[in-house]
Amino acid sequence: MGTVIISSAFNPKPIESNAVQLHQDSKIELPDNIKEIVEVKCMNCHKPDARNEKAREKLQWVKVPEMNKEQQEDFIAEMFEVIEDGDMPPARMVERNPKMKLTDEENKAFMAWLEKEEKRLKGK
């Protein structure tokens, strides 16, 4: 009888859902409260069929969940800046429709969500 050599190289590991879970965890998720803010105050300008070409080209919220890590990092950094500076929604929009301005509560919720996403991206 010959020698039987068993090598771990021939012992394939089962495909686990970890790869799928890692992929899912690596995407930006919008909780319901943030989705609501985005739908009411952002989507009119930042959607694929928006009339405002500049806003449409700058950001389309429907594409956010598909961003890779580098794009997510850039997105989060830019969102921090425009929310902190009060640049979004733009002053012209708020002048025409004051209800578009983020309330203090919406602003806090948005910032908390951005902080959570930033920590996720940094692995914290």
UniProtKB/TrEMBL annotation:
It holds the Pfam family Haem_bd. InterPro entries: Cyt_c-like_dom_sf (IPR036909), Haem-bd (IPR025992). It comes from the Bacteria. One of its GO terms (molecular function) is electron transfer activity. Residues 2-118 form the Haem-binding domain. This is Haem-binding domain-containing protein.
